[in-house]
Specification:
Rossmann fold, 109 residues, alpha/beta, 4 helices, four-stranded parallel β-sheet
Length: 109
């Protein structure tokens, strides 16, 4: 369990990949919640939800949505830390990190 996540609120944009491993959003949300954090979504789907502590910035494909761009711009404007997948994984305990990486999406390239 990680105290670095406890009580923090996270938003996510893009696809979570770490060293070629794609990890589903549901698994990321589960590890956040298991560590006492909260995954939040903005009701209007644009920008950052009130109270967000971190934006996890995954990979964008060639068809990146304006929604994703507005989340990043909003986070930067509000000085909300933007984490890469690797930086997010660094917040986890070694056990949680290993468990999350072991549960990669088998259908993703």
């Amino acid at each position: 369990m990680s105290n670095k996540i406890r009580g923090k609120q996270f938003m996510f944009t893009g696809t979570f990949r770490y060293r070629g491993i794609r990890i589903t959003r549901d698994r990321i949300i589960a590890v956040i919640e298991q560590n006492g954090g909260r995954f939040v979504q903005n009701e209007n789907a644009r920008g950052i939800a009130a109270g967000t502590d971190f934006l996890i910035l995954g990979e964008w494909n060639a068809r990146v949505k304006d929604i994703d761009k507005s989340k990043l711009s909003d986070a930067q404007a509000k000085k909300i830390p933007v984490l890469t997948p690797e930086q997010f994984l660094d917040l986890l305990s070694p056990e949680d990190r290993n468990t999350l990486l072991a549960q990669r999406d088998p259908l993703a390239a």
